[in-house]
Amino acid sequence: MDTIDKALLKLSERVTDIEEAVIANPAKRSQPLKKIKIQKTQSKDGAVYQFQFYADNKVTHENEPWDRVLPRILALMRDEGFKQCQIKGNVMLTVLMNKDRQFKITGLKQNVNYSVFSEKEHNRRKNYILGGMAVPWMTALGIMDENGNVTSGMQKKFRQINRFLEMLRDVEDKLPDNCTIVDMGCGKSYLTFAMYHYFNGIKGKNVKIRGYDLKADVVEHCNKLAKEFGFDALEFFNKDIAEINNDNDDIAMIITLHACDTATDIAMYHGIRWGCRVIMSVPCCQHELNKQIKNEDLSAIMEHGILKERFAALLTDGIRAQILEIMGYKTDVMEFIDMEHTPKNIMIRAVKTNRPFDETKKQALEKQLVLFGADQCLYRLCFASNGLEKNNKI
């Protein structure tokens, strides 16, 4: 690790221009200044670099000439206690600062301007959100090497992570700074770490993330990794999804990725009753309706186990999407990643709107449930005698 003077010397040797940079990940979450963005802009006197200071709900601006940019970045990190700065310019790199105010430069790579490639080459060299430079936590997990190259055998996981981040990018404006995100059934947490890095390291939103899983050893391992990565606002818990309570946090989003069977429904139910702004779910195995549904008019499907299983899974996700719509969410059902990577590739993404409870859609859904003899878990949770509708909590 380097002192500020050595770090400045190394930066000056490598960085000759900056298009944009983000200083983020404050050591103290309670501090007013949450992040700083730097963007190159043009004035009547030529190029200047605008520093945008995000403190609570206010944004202030200051301009600096080029010779003041790099020294000020390091000084702001040191004085304000920011752990990370991502720089994109003639090169792409990350500046890290530890608790002793020492600096490390990592992920150095020549910046790639994808616009200069032909269309064929552009398609071959996709500009991933986490591509083109080393990301320390991805290097630690063996996804990348120290030069930012994806390691052998991890290409599918790398593409999955970036696809997930692309879907988060589409809804990030719905999530306020300093909110809480809950990941239910987080498993090994590759996507949880990616989400934390994206929101706090890249976007500087200063979010808190809680992950829950039933496997105690997995939770212990993830907490150890979070500490190693310096992800102070990320914590994992060994707890059943059904037992999770909202401790009066502003939980803006819940995520459930491959939670088994009705665990997906329980997670969605939490998201609805907490009034989450965004609900994202990739369902896993779905046995509930496969054991229930009957329809003589669809005997061509019902008499073949594999067809009935697939139909039951699609029907389950259709019911879930419809319930979210009934509850006032704009809901999209989309392909998560290519079918070649996994058959469990459907994502349900719901964004809360101001639309009122839709009784007409509820009645239409109930007709479909009767048609197939289905008693679906999320429907029971939302519309039982003690459910959300009866308690006027929607």
Shape field:
elongated
Q: Quick one: biggest sheet?
A: 7 strands, antiparallel
The second-level CATH architecture of the largest domain is: 3-Layer(aba) Sandwich
CATH topology of the largest domain: Rossmann fold
**What do we call the CATH homologous superfamily of the largest domain?**
Vaccinia Virus protein VP39
The helix/strand order is: HEEEEHEEEHHHEHEHEEHEHHEEHH
Tell me the helix content.
25-40%
| Number of alpha- plus pi-helical segments | 12
Structural class: alpha/beta
Strand order of the largest sheet: 4-3-2-1-5-6-7
Task: Work out the radius of gyration.
Answer: 24 Å
Overall tally of domains: 2
- Number of DSSP-assigned strands: 14
Arithmetic mean of pLDDT: 85
Q: What is the first-to-last residue Cα distance?
A: 52 Å
Low-pLDDT parts are 112-125, 338-342, 389-394
Q: What share of residues are in beta strands?
A: 25-35%
CATH class of the largest domain: Alpha Beta
